[in-house]
Batch of 4 targets.
Target 1
Amino acid sequence: MPVTLAKGDQAPDFELADQDGAVHRLADYAGRTVVLYFYPRDDTPGCTKQACSLRDEMAEIQAEGAVVLGVSTDDAESHRSFIAKHELNFPLLVDAEAEVATRYGAWGEKVLYGRKSIGMTRATFVIGPDGALTKVWKRAKAAEHGQAVLKALRTGR
């Protein structure tokens, strides 16, 4: 049975390394707002639009007191290349076995061009300073995602 998290639920803990090997734990961000976004693959059209939309809103997102963490199953080398190519200004975490994605319900069946497959979905979770989810996108829209995240941080919706 797939995991379904909703606003008000406690965010599952995680511990993942980023593109440089630094370990990030949800507990490290206690008292801060975390935007944890899951995406299918580095440097693909939709994922690039999504990452760049977050990059472009980063100053405003940080002004709201939030940190952004991207998560995919790509390896650290792929993440480093993606960050460098698009001048991303936030860490990308390696979830090689999709364990964290599975706990968040961001791994499962998806349909692309009429074909069903199992993989990472484009899901985002805003985790409040107390560890509770304040906003959940089960299917984020890539190109406008930075603005949508900023709106949620500002309005709580």
Target 2
Amino acid sequence: MTKQLKHETICVQAGWTPTKGEPRVLPIYQSTTFKYDTSEQMAKLFDLEEAGYFYTRLQNPTNDAVAAKIAALEGGVAAMLTSSGQAANFYAIFNICQAGDHFVCSSAIYGGTFNLFGVTMKKLGIEVTFISPDAPEEEIDAAFRPNTKALFGETISNPSMEILDIEKFARIAHKHGVPLIVDNTFPTPINCRPFEWGADIVVHSTTKYMDGHATAVGGAIVDSGNFDWEAYADKFPGLTTPDESYHGLTYTRAFGKGAYITKATAQLMRDLGSIPSPQNSFLLNLGLETLHLRMVQHCKNAQQVAEYLEKQEKVAWVNFSGLPGNKYYDLAQKYMPKGTCGVISFGLKGGRDVSIRFMDSLQLVAIVTHVADARTCVLHPASHTHRQLSDEQLVEAGVRPDLIRLSVGIENAEDIIADIEQALNA
């Protein structure tokens, strides 16, 4: 079909197109290896002269089908699955940065990513400068250096729920000749398509809404194919100069728009190996088939819960960009007019201790180290996911000590609200 398929159809149909006699449902290719008839056939695969499968650490038909579906949802040219969202973030940066390089990153990001970029990657010789996503353009410009290789942000920050001005960030990145990498986990491509606003690479923790059922940890990197690596060849030698580990092959010349993902697969995945199991990709695909249905319900329920919380005497503040008075309401309307996601952050009068007592009183809503699945769940980031950060770092990451992250599921909204009400009264 030449017609551009709609999201709903892509969720259900993309990635796996069976021919006569093949299984209708994407099969699990639970095999580490793939057979060939001659040594020459295998040699061509190892030299990247032909496409095909020889070892699941590099490629697997189940994984590739699901990656193709996610690429289609985002409107990208190619995608690669990883074993976790953290692995996706690491690979996305490490694919274009090496020791001595630098990148700029929004400070309003998930605590695990903040630590990965600010602590662990520093040990590899890659420096990062964190800036407020709301900072004026000149201030963000000033963070760039001659060795800066990327700009990174989250479309909706976890857990502070700040909305990224994607067009502003894309304009700044491109002015400095680097790609904009955006984590689009919370809105998913159902509610936001960053490539349409100038982003170059998108990453996901597929563990969240894409899987949607808390069954499989995973990640994805999607390339738009729009960034011209050759135009800034001196900045990105890994892509634009010969790779000696592949007989002097140059990725941009050999693979064109597929250069970035091919390098990530053939070089980083080959050497570092954080692949998803085909079983996990199969489960992710089942989740993707209903993503377009679930996101509508998550957003609808979250809107009702946020409106309820806003009216409660014991609630100090509510941050949900679907509320007209919210600081990010206008940006949310621009980038995500159909809705943002099901996650709300709020605080209770009385601070941290009251927040913890409230959470311990919930019955239907579970305290879990997770977010964005079918079941409503709650977390206190300062005590849980972000507990490794100092108070200063918490503030920098947009996490107040009293912040409660509520991930509204797809149950009946009245039941969710009733549980919140009894916990507030308790």
Target 3
Amino acid sequence: MSKILTLYHGSSRNVVVPEFGAGKEHNDFGLGFYCTESAELAKEWAVSSLSDGFCNRYTIDTEYINVLNLNNPEYTILNWIAVLLRHRVFPIKNPIAGRAKQYLLDNFYVNVNAYDIVTGYRADDSYFDYAEAFVNNALSVNQLAQAMMLGKLGEQVVIKSKFAFSELKYQGFEVAEKDTYYSLRKTRDSEANSSYLKMAEDDDDGLYVRDIIRGGIKNDDPRIPRNLPQ
């Protein structure tokens, strides 16, 4: 039975035919076409402080599509971190961060390029900072899991394979007004940062990345928070 998924892509332009192989290699999940199931979030991502944007709408039949959902209970927050470490550029600020990167890649990485579509958290600027703090041993894994819920940024859905690109059907667009959606984006980010700073000030006796390395902790350890949908 077919399962039609409606997706939205926020952009500075109208994208009628997304191009396979285009885009930035160092995005969260590597090369792909980055979307969301929320039109409102896509509009926030589409605008800048200077210009309106486009909220492009698509549908895709996922009946024969191989989907990786990193927010399913079988995965943990560290699977998401490891994917980021493979694709994004992380500043290594101390020796523990270098060891952490290798340990997380060796033990938690999921090959997102083996799937047609990948769903997971979006590492917006603030959220990338939270991930960086964890890798640099400044945030516990429980604090990281809490931080990812701040601001309710939601999930992104990334079209990865050539087959998935071919199944994507353009359905039109709406204009995203900068006067409305840029303010909403900045407010969301500001509220998330404010909540994060309050949380980060609290002492936490949970697992830090140094503890994870020293303890040889793997993905099935019950102390690692599951990556559950918001």
Target 4
Amino acid sequence: MILHRDSELLLVDKPEGLLSVPGKGAHLADCLLARLQAIYPEVLLVHRLDRDTSGVIVFAMNRGAQRHLGLQFERRHCSKSYIARVFGRVAEEGGVIDLPLASDWPNRPRQMVDFERGKPSRTGWQVLEREAAATRMRLRPETGRSHQLRVHMRELGHPILGDPLYAEGVALEAKRLMLHAETLTLRHPDGGKPVTFRAECPF
């Protein structure tokens, strides 16, 4: 679902289960980028969301906007917030997880905490609602490592429900990965004004 389009930006609410970009092999050719380029051939990739994560994702409508947005992500001038439902009842009200992450090469695409070769990774978190056996949380990544939120929640002792890589047992029984990119704040390439885009959480 398209959230916003102008001469510089295209914001989309990505559905869960759809790749952001093509995977390896013809069976993984269907992706959000290809679907958008069928409508707007000029659309260019800026960043990605995991296949099983839904929510706000931005694309560029020209090369200049792509460079502008790419630098914002690289320099951490964008801010994002996610909604997650995690396994168990989280006791604290909020905090920051600061654990370096690296690829778990023998078990790709899994990532792992690695204090020797891992890259700095920080996630702010806040409890929104406690359920009988789960907790709804808002997550704010300060860095953008692969699977960062998923690994950090597991390390907190509360894996994201439905996570096929990092959850086990009853935490796997959810109908989808319970992770949604709710908001994205960035500076518009035309003028630099901060703008925020939101996609309503479907769970």
